[in-house]
Amino acid sequence: MNPCGVSVSALFSRRTGVMLALVVLCSFALASCAALAAAARSGSLAADKPILRGIRVYGGNTDTSPPIITRSPQNVFGSSSQNSQSNDAANVIGSSFVTIEMDVQSIVQPAFAALLVHCDAEWREDKNFVVNDPSLRVVQIQVFQANSFSRYFTHRAKFTVPNSEIQLRFSGNWKAKIFDVDDMTSPLGEARFFVVDQEAETSLAMTIDAYSPRIGGTSPAAYLLEAALTAPPQFLDENFHTVALYRAWRWNEPIRITQDGTMGRTETLYNRSSKMTVLGFSTAQKRFRVTAIPAENEYRVLDIRDALRFPASNAPLRFSLADLRRNGTSLLRGDDGAMTTDGVSPSTDEYVLMDFILDPEGLPSSREIYLVGSFNSWKLLPDWKMRYDPEQRQYVLAQYVRRGRHNYVYASAAVNKETGAPESYDYEECEGNTTSANQTFYAFFYYRNPQFGGYDALLGVAAMNAAKRSK
Predict the structure, then answer these.
(1) Cα(69)–Cα(85) distance, rounded to whole angstroms?
(2) pLDDT tens by residue, 234-277
(3) What's the angle, vertex CA 63, arms to CA 379 and CA 370, rounded to 5?
(4) What's the domain count of the chain?
(5) Deepest of 2, 201, 304, 345, by most Cβ within 10 A of its Cβ?
(6) Residue 431 belongs to a domain
(7) Residue 141 covered by a domain
């Protein structure tokens, strides 16, 4: 007889239940600690504020296609969007839609909204509420869970534009500004893309030119670029005011040729001045010409698609040899600036911690060195500024890179003492120039449409690959 009135079997059952509860609580605590540790390694412990790790935009479903939506000729002077049909001809530059991907670090399941904003030729957001309809929001954004072993991101979000939810009535420069649905005041990031109504006959030509390098001994190889158009008679010639030239995938580095005296020019991007000319003011044919654009070099290649050679680990991976300065020499063809992820399986789709090392082969640069490439959307960013190690006499940087094949280069820049932002940057110090580099230039033709209060429409696009140019 149990003096307490409780059977031994019941007491044993109660103890077993308590032990099981403790095991569950401990397992939950360990899982929570693991999640917090992963967040700490990634630099964030805030569960309510997702961090955008990477964003990219490309044409259609192919990650090597430029983010250009090209449509057949529209009724650009009307308000109807019924004629906004995609031009799917084989010789058309662009796609019928763009895809936008985002990699995110978040402890909880994130939810996003994308605000689509029309911009002028300088990427300034239009204040015109007819063209810039504030209701242009995408909320049907798919969010996928990342691999459980991924250390740098937890989710991937993806959507396309246009779609059943959103149609774009006006051509021109567009931004997709990404927001957390719980905070529509502070964008997490943005992606740029173009919408072109191919109204005019356009072309882009290039010939060999020369410029004066900033650094002695650098090849002076350069291009003269000329973008030409023949406009239909209903368009006013003087309203074709600007052509913006871009190297493929470097959509933050416009080379503007304009007859608009209020518009910014190329000098803000390069430590030099190029001569720009607009010809044909009184005819339907117009030519926009710029001289002395550095040819630059073939892009360096980082291919980390093979998970056996480049496994994800806590320690940064490095190549056996450091990168060296170049002056127009390259043994490996790049990918025209694109990131390619073909061959990467879902089980290995992650970020790899890489150790980049640049050997200056002597004294360090008098300016700051930045790593720029497809892994950071070709932007000079503070987190991608390299550190000079006086003991190793090398520039070093450890950064997470999405698994795939990347193109990259090293830029040198002066740094603004007040803002800390890089300025007057170029690529000649570490890369040099060669006219055999495989780089494609795109020319976008802007027309000042007087309708709806006025806006910069894109009525033509042309392209030319430097390695395949006409002799």
Answers:
(1) 11
(2) 787 788 999 999 999 999 999 999 987 777 555 445 556 678 89
(3) 20
(4) 4
(5) 304
(6) no
(7) yes
